[in-house]
Specification:
By secondary structure, the protein is an all-alpha fold. The protein has a single domain, classed as Na+/H+ antiporter like fold, CATH 1.20.1530. The protein is built from 18 helices and no strands.
Length: 404
């Protein structure tokens, strides 16, 4: 053994370096720089950091590292989805049924428009339907990040938050139902065709109900102790992510339903809207940066036409749906158009849905990934701007946050 064996090897082994901590640090700094000097949303800085660290540029996070970070990404998404689920006011939907009607219409029109455009571009029907289902999902991370950053409050803000949650539910349910078609096409066997989507949907909802009921029982046991409640709910969210992965359920659907049911079943108002504060902010930055790092920009040139077509169809469908019953739901056409713009972002969750579907069905994986990665990459950059524009033009952003 050399007498200098205590010294580090050269070149150094970088495999064990905490790249994710470094990415978090750089993402925060870039976000602040973008916001302070360019007056743009911090989310754009977080996305830029993730894209730079991804396989197309610096390669700090390659496909293998992205897979290894999947559980961390799922936890970050779980915290965001649970908090968003807490924003779904089922009482508001009961009092104003036109809200649900406008949500269903904008989602339905978006699906039909995306499918039609991709079909016209000669995309196979099964790929077009899957892309349209994933395209229903709006980005919870963008919406929550912008409403926090702008300290936005008002009718447009609340509708964007609620419709984002509902759109995510529609997307997860639609993709789960398409599993039957995918199984019939690529797997065969009536058991997998019928049972698999039912397991994904109803299994996720049942487990979400169990977690919500246990959470409320625990909060009743703890009493009004905010710190203890906060730590217990964070631990339960992590446990819910692990349970979904173990049971092969839909992590996003389970966590979103968990947050929604925890509020809907909370008749004693143990907590009205649990916000994760600084931990939630860290989760948002990680979700933006890691999901952006998972985008392989090499897919963009091949999928540019289909990706742009998907974005245009998605916007047209959402706008038409909002205009159809906007006045009946108590919203002017101007504000309805702002809500549709606020719902445009699509990022990490859509990317996870794309990669999970492509991994499960490699027969359509390349074509689906080519289309969706291009669309998601564009909306990672455009989406925060459209949401910021909608909230500011609606007059619901804090003046101090706009001026800063």
């Amino acid at each position: 053994m050399s007498e200098l064996s205590f010294l580090p090897t050269w070149p150094p082994d970088t495999a064990g370096l905490p790249w994710f901590a470094l990415i978090l640090l750089v993402a925060v700094l870039l976000g602040e720089a973008v916001n302070r000097w360019l007056r743009l949303p911090r989310a754009l800085g977080w996305v830029a950091c993730g894209l730079a660290a991804g396989p197309s540029l610096l390669g700090l996070i390659d496909a293998i590292a992205f897979e290894e970070s999947r559980f961390l990404l799922q936890i970050a998404a779980g915290l965001v989805l649970f908090e968003l689920g807490q924003r779904v006011d089922t009482g508001w939907l009961r009092r104003n049924p036109w809200l649900l009607a406008s949500s269903l219409l904008e989602a339905g029109f978006s699906f039909v428009a995306i499918y039609a455009v991709l079909w016209l571009l000669q995309v196979p029907p099964l790929v077009a339907a899957t892309a349209a289902a994933i395209g229903l999902a709006s980005s919870p991370s963008v919406v929550l990040a912008l409403t926090r950053e702008l300290r936005a409050q008002g009718q447009v803000t609340e509708r964007i938050l609620m419709f984002t949650a509902l759109n995510c539910i529609y997307a997860f349910v639609a993709v789960s139902m398409l599993v039957a078609w995918l199984n019939a096409e690529y797997r065969g066997g009536w058991i997998s065709v019928a049972a698999h989507p039912m397991w994904l949907i109803f299994g996720s909802l049942i487990v979400a109900f169990v977690f919500a009921a246990f959470t409320l029982w625990l909060l009743r046991l703890l009493g009004p102790r905010p710190d203890a409640q906060y730590m217990c709910v964070v631990a339960l969210v992590v446990a819910a992510v692990a349970a979904a992965q173990t049971l092969r359920l839909s992590v996003p659907l389970l966590l979103l339903a968990y947050g929604t049911l925890a509020r809907a079943l909370d008749r004693d108002r143990r907590f009205v809207s649990l916000q994760f504060g600084r931990l939630g902010s860290i989760a948002l930055v990680l979700l933006f940066a890691l999901s952006a790092a998972g985008i392989d920009l090499r897919y963009v040139p091949a999928g540019l036409l289909a990706g742009v077509g998907l974005l245009a169809a998605r916007w047209a469908g959402k706008t038409l749906g909002m205009f159809a019953v906007g006045r009946a739901s108590g919203l002017s056409l101007r504000k309805a158009s702002l809500v549709s713009l606020g719902l445009m972002p699509m990022s990490g969750l859509a990317l996870l849905l794309t990669y999970d579907t492509a991994a499960r069905y490699p027969e359509l994986g390349v074509q689906l990934t080519t289309i969706m990665v291009c669309a998601i990459a564009l909306l990672e950059l455009i989406g925060p701007l459209t949401t910021q524009f909608a909230l500011v033009r609606a007059g619901e952003a804090s003046q101090a946050s706009v001026q800063s």
